[in-house]
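Handover notes (outgoing to incoming on-call)

Open items:
1. C-type lectin domain-containing protein: sequence verified, structure written out, both below. Nothing else pending on this one.
2. Nothing else urgent.
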Amino acid sequence: MLRLLALAIFPILVVSQCQPGDYPFETNCFSFHRVQGSFDETNRICSKTLGGSLVKIINIIENNWIQKLAVDNLDADYDFFWTGGSDQNHVGDWRWTDGSPFNFTRWANGEPLEDRHCSTMQVSTGLWFTSICDLKWQFICQYPQNGGGTVSPFSCPPCPTCSN
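C-type lectin domain-containing protein structure tokens:
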């Protein structure tokens, strides 16, 4: 009986499979980066180091949660960060880096602008603004809890004392 109780409790204790310092929300992990880069550079960093992409915001609850954590985890001197939205492939057709269309938006008044093709969020308000894709902003990566975040940018040689 004690073993069954332990097995029943164990899955509750192992809720998050995020990298240390990252934040779980629903089925994803979110990694906040103060370093700045262009839209494409930062999306590549998310892909190569975490197996993810720039953040995809699907509803107001997630938008508000991300904005609150951005206030706590990003540099206040830079009030914007990249999100994973772009209309680079077809002007006016805003899509996330995974190719899915926007089903939720939180554009500021007057946005999106036709001559700026990548999306940012303003840390202080949670509103979305378009930006020139080559500008350098902070960013947030998103990756799946049980499958992402395992790719390391470092490689180590095999252990010399281990037998193969």
